[in-house]
Amino acid sequence: MFILFTLQIPAAILIISLVIIGIIFYLMLNRHKIQKEELQRKIQAGKEDIQEQIDRAEKSESYKEFFLANMSHEIRTPMHAISGMTNILRRNEHPKEQDKYLDAIHQSAENLLVILNDILDSSKIEAGKLKIDSIPMNPVQVIEDVVEILRFRAEDKGLQLKHLIEGNIPEQVLGDPIRLNQILTNLASNAIKFTESGSVQISLRVIQKDSEDLMQFAVEDTGIGIPDNKLKTIFDVFEQVDGTLSKKFGGTGLGLSISKQLVEMQGGNIQATSILNQGSTFTFQLPLKPILQTAPKEMTITEEELVKMGASLGSLKVLLAEDNDFNVMLAKDDLSYYIPHIEIETAANGKIALEMFKSKAYDLVLMDIQMPEMNGYEAARKIREWEEKEAQANQTPIIAMTASLLKAEIVKCYEVGMNNFIPKPYKIEEFIGTINEEAMKIQ
Ligand code: ADP
């Protein structure tokens, strides 16, 4: 009995211990399960959070693009009025002492346009939306154009702006003349900006690398130079050697970074060397392939030729569809200055333009794109439909005038039946030159 009793106690303890261990084990397993579920819940929440953040970032990226494209358009329109009317004031009679104010307005508008274009380009590159063309171009011509445009700025500072073409350069290569012009203009403008005396030289020669022919462009100045420790970072976004200098000369610190990216997008490389207080040289190489056939040369029109061109157009009847009063004033003034016998009628939106077009014969239509009631695309499309319905023998040339430089919008101008386009703000030779080009086709 005693033995039985003494055996029962350890058995009970054992059973109780086993039950306790079982409970602990169960609790541990359950806790582990709860922890696992908790972890899975957190991972799921984390995933959703990350996805939400990606969605938000993507949304904000496309919002940024949309915002920039629209802002650029909104800023371009008043800038077009500012720079255009400054030009009118400059060419009309005015007190001599006002020259410096007019020059200042003109220069500020130009600077603003450069900044605007830089910001747009930078955001396009970032979004992978900037495309490089591959069309026939003459690299020497591009250099000459840049020298021509910057000559006055260099002369103003008493600097010599030279170009040097070494050896035989193919007359026609495949490349992107606009982007090459942009890179060279940017480097040469910097060179002029940061040089107080001496010269700036743009040179071109062909070099061989890994048995491939490369075109090597260099922009050399005798300016303030760049310290060694800054040379490595000078191509980074917003990098400037001396912030106080940028206050004096203007600038955003975007130019070199855009130039570097444009060079690299064309399969090239860019480098800078410099000696402080002696000067800097920016060199880049591009694999521009020579082509044999010759493309028509880009036309540069002098003031004298413009006046002659305008006079030869005779009495041109133009319908100008434009809702902005300042732009109407500007276009009318420019047109009647260069084309003395022109007749201009205006329409404040596409709908009015369409009705006017139906009721009277015009030689040419200048069509703004963004207008109330009916925009330029719609009006041009309806004009073409009407001409077809009326079985008109010839289509009247329609030239789009647009502050948007987005390729898709320019393509759309042609798709709806327009024949050409003039960007705003326009250069007077683009404006009169394009009108002349279209008017010649109907004469
Ligand atoms: P920005 O000229 O608008 O400031 P950039 O990216 O074109 O921007 O140039 C960045 C900086 O590099 C300039 O602010 C200047 O400090 C320096 N830099 C560029 N080109 C030259 C040059 N030719 N000589 C001296 N410094 C230069």
What topology emerges from the helices and strands here?
Blueprint: H1 2-91, H2 99-126, E1 135-137, H3 139-156, E2 160-165, E3 173-175, H4 177-193, E4 199-209, E5 212-221, H5 228-231, H6 243-249, H7 255-265, E6 269-275, E7 279-286, E8 289-290, H8 303-312, E9 317-321, H9 325-338, E10 343-347, H10 350-359, E11 364-368, H11 376-389, E12 398-402, H12 407-415, E13 420-423, H13 428-442
Parallel strand pairs: 2-4, 9-10, 9-11, 11-12, 12-13
Antiparallel strand pairs: 1-3, 3-8, 4-5, 5-7, 6-7
Helix pairs in contact: 1-2, 1-9, 3-4, 4-7, 8-13, 10-11
The structure holds adenosine-5'-diphosphate (ADP).
Adenosine-5'-diphosphate binds at residues 190-191, 194, 221, 223-224, 226, 234, 239-242, 246, 251-257, 280.
Q: Which small-molecule species are bound to the chains here? A: adenosine-5'-diphosphate
Q: Please provide the count of β strands.
A: 13
Shape: extended
What spatial order of strands do you see in the largest sheet? Answer: 2-4-5-7-6
Q: Order of SSEs, N→C?
A: HHEHEEHEEHHHEEEHEHEHEHEHEH
General description of the model:
- This protein has 443 residues and is an alpha/beta fold.
- The protein contains 13 helices and 13 strands.
- The strands form three sheets. It has a five-stranded mixed sheet.
- Helix 3 runs parallel beside helix 4, helix 4 packs antiparallel against helix 7 and helix 8 runs parallel beside helix 13.
- The protein is extended.
- The termini are far apart.
- About 1% of the residues have low confidence.
- Adenosine-5'-diphosphate binds next to helix 4 and helix 7.
